[in-house]
């Protein structure tokens, strides 16, 4: 953790930053592999994220520097910007390119990024960078975008400039997040409800499996195709656009239309998971963390058995959690095949939980996870105080 980012900016650019912004990462509390099936997800912003400090320059260039990566870049205003390899600054570069293509008047800017989101953990560091950049440019240069437009802009950058076919949940959560609120988001309509989520004596434990997610992309595309196959089968008798247009009872009455047993399992997970989100929102709003925890476990079991996107690493975390009475619930979060699991852990027991889950996981898997404690935080915004983290 950097003690004083203003000093770091001064060291890098020999001038002081004139503005500072923060955009969080996110976890999805429940509702996994739902976003591309037109249903409900329930993400929240976390207290890890991306800091961005800026100062105008008179050189007509954008300079990108980071405290997390060695790569630096300098690009001229109004040049034709293209993605460069796999470097981190493609994300802010894509946002700048979008603003320029939309005819927005920009000026030269020195930019320093610092993130405390674990890289490659599935906590949406890329969306955090995109949203903090778009928010800052909109604020500094009077872009005129509302927050939802910034979300769509940032997703567009991810899809078209970066080339990753993500849904809108990540950018939405880091932009619209609210302290002690989960966002029950309809991925089809983008209607959302901020659900009271006071964790009370509990904290959100984030357990990074530290497993490289090499399988995630190919298997993700495979699951999308399986869901489309299931939808087409159900459409023989049902007038629906998405799997999540029906509930579990309706699915059970029509599942015989899906003749492939594996494809039927995929659809069963999606439809039951969508129903679980509704139950989870009710449990959280009523401060029933015990019920919410059981829904987390049910979600993980379904992702493991019906959707088959877990793995021994994620399963080991949840197996351990079920043995610990200080844990209300746990599940994998994100696309799967690595990445992170989350658990609701009593705050005063977090340190012991961290030690014990690390020992259990290391024994099962052969290397250690990384364990973090977070609360549910606010979305993107301006930092008005001297920048310390």
TrEMBL record:
Q: Which residues bind Mg(2+)?
A: 126, 158
EC numbers listed for it are 2.7.1.6
At what residues does the UniProt record annotate the site feature described as Transition state stabilizer?
26
* InterPro entries noted in UniProt: Galactokinase, Galactokinase_bac, Galactokinase_CS, GalKase_N, GHMP_kinase_C_dom, GHMP_kinase_C_sf, GHMP_kinase_N_dom, GHMP_knse_ATP-bd_CS
Q: Which superkingdom, per the lineage?
A: Bacteria
Sites binding substrate sit at 32-35, 220
Q: What family is this protein classified in?
A: Belongs to the GHMP kinase family. GalK subfamily.
* Protein known as: Galactokinase
* Annotated source species: Mucilaginibacter litoreus
Q: Lineage in the entry?
A: Bacteria, Pseudomonadati, Bacteroidota, Sphingobacteriia, Sphingobacteriales
Gene label = galK
């Amino acid at each position: 953790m950097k003690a004083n980012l203003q000093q770091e900016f001064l060291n890098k650019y020999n001038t002081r930053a004139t503005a500072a912004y923060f955009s969080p990462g996110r976890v999805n509390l429940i509702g996994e592999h739902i976003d591309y099936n037109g249903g409900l997800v329930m993400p929240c912003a976390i207290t890890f994220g991306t800091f961005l400090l800026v100062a105008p320059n008179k050189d007509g260039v954008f300079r990108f520097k980071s405290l997390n990566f060695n790569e630096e870049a300098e690009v001229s205003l109004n040049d034709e910007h293209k993605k460069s390899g796999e470097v981190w600054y493609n994300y802010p570069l894509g946002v700048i390119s979008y603003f320029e293509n939309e005819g927005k008047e920009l000026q030269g800017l020195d930019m320093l990024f610092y993130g405390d989101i674990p890289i490659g953990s599935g906590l949406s560091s890329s969306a955090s960078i995109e949203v903090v950049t778009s928010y800052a440019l909109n604020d500094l240069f009077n872009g005129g975008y509302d927050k939802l437009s910034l979300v769509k802009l940032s997703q567009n950058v991810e899809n078209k400039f970066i080339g990753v076919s993500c849904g809108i949940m990540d950018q939405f959560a880091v932009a619209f997040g609210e302290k002690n609120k989960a966002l029950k988001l309809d991925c089809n309509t983008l209607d959302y409800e901020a659900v009271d989520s006071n964790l009370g004596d509990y904290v959100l434990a984030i357990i990074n499996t530290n497993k490289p997610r090499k399988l995630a992309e190919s298997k993700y595309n495979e699951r999308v195709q399986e869901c489309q196959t299931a939808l087409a089968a159900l459409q023989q008798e049902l007038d629906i656009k998405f799997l999540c247009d029906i509930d579990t009872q309706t699915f059970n009455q029509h599942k015989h239309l899906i003749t492939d047993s594996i494809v039927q399992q995929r659809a069963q997970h999606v439809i039951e998971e969508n129903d679980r989100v509704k139950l989870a929102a009710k449990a959280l709003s009523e401060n029933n963390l015990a019920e919410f925890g059981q829904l987390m476990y049910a979600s993980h079991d379904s992702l493991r058995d019906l959707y088959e996107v877990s793995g021994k690493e994620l399963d080991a975390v949840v197996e351990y959690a079920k043995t610990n009475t200080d844990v209300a619930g746990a599940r994998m979060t994100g696309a799967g095949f690595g990445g992170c699991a989350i658990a609701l852990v009593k705050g005063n027991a977090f340190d012991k939980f961290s030690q014990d889950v690390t020992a259990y996981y290391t024994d099962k898997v052969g290397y250690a996870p990384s364990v973090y404690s977070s609360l549910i935080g606010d979305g993107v915004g301006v930092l008005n105080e001297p920048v310390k983290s």
